[in-house]
C-alpha cells in the first residue's frame, strides 16, 4: 500500500514481528497490528509503519494566560498560545476535555491522508508559530489533551518555536517514556504534570493507567532536570476519591521528598464526562489539602478553580512577604526585582525572565 505523503510517520516506535510495531511514546508501550491504532486512537499502523494521524490537526486553539495551565512560577502574567488535538492515553472518567480527548470514532484513509470526519483544523507547525508571533505571544503550550500522544507534532512545532526565540510548555499527565523525554527535552522549558491521586487503584480504575510511571517522571524532572525544565504539579481534588488524608499527605510528602520547591496546585473538580455524580469540590477540602501541603514541607502550595486570593498568591518562604498577588487570572507583582524577595533578599525558585 502506498501511504499518503501527507501522513507523518512517527519517530517514536520500533518494529516487532509480522508487521506489528511497538509505540515508544508513553508507558502503555502499545503493540499495534497493521490497520489498528494504539490506546490513544491517534497512532496508527499502516503497512508495518506507525503514523500520527492527528499531525497538523489541532482540535482546540486558544490564547490563555499562563496561570491557566497552571504555572505560577514561570513568566507570570504572560499569554500563551495553546493547542490540543483529539485522542489521549488516559481514560480519566472526570476529564474536563473529554469531547476531544476521548474522541475515537474516526478513521484516516492512508491513501489520501484525509480523515472521514472533523478531527481538527489544519494547523501545521509553521502556522502555529507564525500565528503566535503575529499576536506577539512568545510561549506555546501543548495542552488540552495529552501531548505525549502527538509528540512528533509537538516536537516539530517546539523546535521551530525555539528557532524563533520562543519557549514551550507541556501540560501533561506524566506518562512519558525515556524515549519521549530524550526527544522533546531539547525544546521544552516548562511542564505542569498532573498527579491525579496517590493510589494505584485510583489510577487503574479511574484513569486506565498506572501511578508508578507518573511518580518516576516527577522524580526525574524534579531531580535530574531541575534547573533545566521548570515543573509544577497539579492535583484535581475529587471528594470521595482522592481527598482522604492518607492520599493528600502521601502526595505532599512525595513531592517534598523530590524537591520542596515544586509548586503544588490543589484544584477544585466539577462534575464531567462519566463522573457527573461528584460534587464541586468544597473550599474547605481545598484548604485541607493546602494545609497538608504546607505541613509536609512544600514551600509553595496554591488552591485553584476557586476564588481564594490568600491561598493563590506567592509569599517569600523565608520571611512571609507577599510577592505575587493573584485573584483568579488577575496578577499583581509586588517585588522590585522579579525572582527576589524585596524584604529579605531570598531568591524565589522559578523562571522569571
Ligand atoms: S502514545 Fe498511544 S499508541 Fe503510543 S504507547 Fe501511548 S497509548 Fe499506545
**Main beta sheet: strand number and arrangement?**
8 strands, mixed
**Which percent band covers the strand fraction?**
15-25%
**N- and C-termini, Cα separation:** 51 Å
- Helix-and-strand structural type: alpha/beta
The CATH class name of the domain at 195-302 reads: Alpha Beta
Order of secondary-structure elements: EEEEEEEEEHEHEHEHEHHEHEHEHEEE
**Quaternary status of these chains?**
single chain
The strands making up the biggest β-sheet line up spatially as 8-9-11-12-13-14-15-16
**Mean pLDDT, all residues:** 98
- Flag low-confidence runs: none
Provide a short characterization of the protein structure.
The chain has 353 residues and is an alpha/beta fold. Helices cover 25% and strands 22% of the residues.
Q: Would you give an account of this structure?
A:
The chain contains 9 helices and 19 strands. It has 353 residues and is an alpha/beta fold. Among the domains are: 8-52, no CATH class; 195-302, TIM Barrel, CATH 3.20.20; 313-353, no CATH class. A hairpin with a 2-residue loop joins strand 18 and strand 19. Helix 2 packs across helix 3 (151-163) and helix 7 packs across helix 8. The longest helix is centred in the middle third of the chain and has 14 residues, at 211-224. The radius of gyration is 20 Å and the shape is globular. The termini are far apart. The mean pLDDT is 98. It binds iron/sulfur cluster (SF4). Iron/sulfur cluster binds at residues 23, 25-26, 28-30, 38-40, 43, 89, 148-149.
